[in-house]
Automatic annotation (TrEMBL):
Keywords: Acyltransferase, Transferase
Record PANTHER family: AMINOALKYLPHOSPHONATE N-ACETYLTRANSFERASE-RELATED (PTHR43877:SF2), AMINOALKYLPHOSPHONATE N-ACETYLTRANSFERASE-RELATED-RELATED (PTHR43877)
Protein name: GCN5-related N-acetyltransferase
Matches recorded under Gene3D superfamilies: 3.40.630.30
GO molecular function, one term: acyltransferase activity, transferring groups other than amino-acyl groups
Domain of life: Bacteria
N-acetyltransferase domain: residues covered: 10-168
Protein source organism: Geodermatophilus obscurus (strain ATCC 25078 / DSM 43160 / JCM 3152 / CCUG 61914 / KCC A-0152 / KCTC 9177 / NBRC 13315 / NRRL B-3577 / G-20)
InterPro entries assigned: Acyl_CoA_acyltransferase (IPR016181), Bact_Acetyltransf (IPR050832), GNAT_dom (IPR000182)
């Protein structure tokens, strides 16, 4: 869904250390309070500084500079846990403030990841998502991602992740 013409302007940029507390709270609120992740995953969700050390942490800001969404773009290394070659990029922990959902924030963040991955010379974007994250899956499919069921995986017993990919 694209933002309406009268919606506040949104911008994507790199997260700053002073954004980390907001990103951690937002991520926990969406994933844990939304029933999309177990409490055991909470420590990783709160470790924003650790994400920033292992990925390019991007944020969407509203016209007042508030963080309204975030995503960790993985261009190298194994933090994505789903890449299989140096030609692949991944993103993780895509989150949008529930008050801002439906304004195109998630799409804006995914598009920023795709543009940055292309600029880095990557040939494919891959991601994994929990079966319960149906809104995110609809976004990915609308943007052209397709399922790679042969790469689905379980990071822990009872946690079944679906893998999607998009050739860049």
């Amino acid at each position: 869904m694209s933002p309406s013409p009268d919606a506040p302007a949104l911008a994507v940029d790199r997260a700053r250390p002073d954004d980390f507390a907001r990103i951690g709270q937002l991520t926990c609120d969406v994933y844990l309070d939304g029933g999309l992740a177990s409490a055991a995953y909470g420590e990783q969700l709160r470790d924003v500084a650790g994400r920033a050390d292992r990925a390019e942490l991007l944020v969407a800001r509203d016209d007042e500079g508030r963080v309204v969404g975030s995503v960790a773009l993985v261009l190298e290394g194994d933090f994505g846990e789903v890449t299989e070659s140096d030609d692949e990029a991944a993103f993780r922990m895509l989150v949008v403030d529930p008050a801002g959902q439906g304004r195109g924030i998630g799409e804006l963040l995914v598009t920023a990841c795709l543009e940055r991955a292309r600029a880095a010379g990557k040939r494919r974007m891959v991601l994994s998502t929990d079966r319960r994250m149906t809104t995110a899956q609809r976004l990915y499919e609308r943007l052209g991602f397709t399922r790679l069921p042969e790469r689905d995986w379980q990071p822990a017993p009872g946690i079944d992740l679906l893998v999607y990919a998009l050739d860049l």
